[in-house]
Design goal:
Helix content is 26%, strand content 30%. The chain is an alpha+beta fold. It folds into two domains: 223 residues, Rossmann fold (3-Layer(aba) Sandwich); 140 residues, no CATH class. The strands form five sheets. It has a six-stranded mixed beta sheet with strand order 6-7-8-3-9-10, sandwiched between helices. It binds adenosine-5'-diphosphate and magnesium ion. Keywords: ATP-binding, Nucleotide-binding, Sugar transport, Transport. GO terms for molecular function: ABC-type transporter activity; ATP binding; ATP hydrolysis activity. This is Multiple sugar transport system ATP-binding protein.
Length: 435
Amino acid sequence: MTTVALKDVTKIFQDGTVAVDNVSIDVNDGEFMVLLGPSGCGKSTVLRMVAGLEDPTTGAILLDGDLANDLPPRERRIAMVFQDFALYPHMSVGDNIGFPLRLSRVEPMARGERVADVASALGIGDVLARKPNQLSGGQRQRVAMGRAIVRRPGLFLMDEPLSNLDSGLRAELRAEISGLVRELGVSTIYVTHDQAEALTMADRVAIMRRGVLQDVGTPTQVYGRPATLYVAAFLGSPRMNLLEASVYVHLDRYVTLNLGDQNLYLPWDDIRARAVAHYHGERIVVGMRAEALTPVAPNSPGDVLQGRIRYLEHHGHESLAFLDIGATAVVVDEMGQAPAEQASEGGPLRRFGHAVQRLTNRGASAAAVQELGPSRSRTSVLSDPGRHHRRPAELAVRLAPYPNVQSGTSLSVSVRMDALHFFDDRGDRIDVGWR
Ligand SMILES: Nc1ncnc2c1ncn2[C@@H]1O[C@H](COP(=O)(O)OP(=O)(O)O)[C@@H](O)[C@H]1O
Ligand SMILES: [Mg+2]
């Protein structure tokens, strides 16, 4: 229906907050794009700029290929659904859904038909006469959706529409919403801080951190080959194990990844070994998801790590064991912290020489530069002592639901070397033929 393009869009608020920092995203015709990131990373601001409720400080917003920066909201053919969707309490469900049509002077007959169509598509055709306070939470959300759909928009903007609902209902409505908008073929930008929601609903996911776009791709791409340490840490449950490793190259044979007490060996004929070999004598971050680890018998041959079970977590369908393997974990900060906490963490300004210059060129205030914070600092994730980046690793390993093991005992796990992820000390992916 509508395509959206953000080109180098930056939003700096009056008080100097850089909410969106040079973001470029394309949303294709009929695509379901999910904007994902922790609270305060700039998701809503992106959405509001697309809707025309907020002006970009710099950059361009294109709708169907045309510059839309100065297009009034009502001319954008956009419908928005928010977290705290407000229904008119004194109006019936039918009147709530039909309200936008009444505003645009659609005849009552035609209005009634469109409302009935939309309501039946949403499974609320039988409650049209009720008032909002006679509905369940899920039904109310469907009414809000109906009101957005009924105008036949070219683009849906949804800002955490499910986050006020309980988890069962959320899962149900996830499937319903994505099914419905796909059926309608309406391009959608859907904002959430919930990575599971993003991965299950999206055609493509765009991950943001502190106003900066980190990665864009299909759920498989961003999960399978995260562009940054941050994306790696944000996606998936349990979180990816991120371990500090020292690299030693044995030319033509293998690359040793020293994890502290234990080593892994990347064979030279694994093409990624060449990329990792550039870091000879340095430290990198090795990422391994729980699915890359399989419990094996003690002293099994091959790529095996051994550890003591520090504790077990039972999740019903599976159990997680957390192993002490004598390694150091790299902890990625601001995974969902409140913006205030992020700001107070600060960071020495002199480190952002290039960022300062870039912003100064655009005529931004010094306050704006200060607000950039560490996202621009490019300091090492491995050696910044003030920010609690490292701690003894507890390697998350999946076990069957009722495992025959206890905490305190030792466990060996075989490591799927081809499922490892490597990141440099700035948090960027190390890979072969990477973008
Ligand atoms: N009108 C505003 N004035 C100043 N700062 C704002 C304004 N709106 C949002 N912000 C700030 O911009 C940043 C991004 O906000 P927002 O886009 O709402 O994030 P998200 O939707 O990802 O939680 C936050 O630090 C927020 O405090
Ligand atoms: Mg928001």
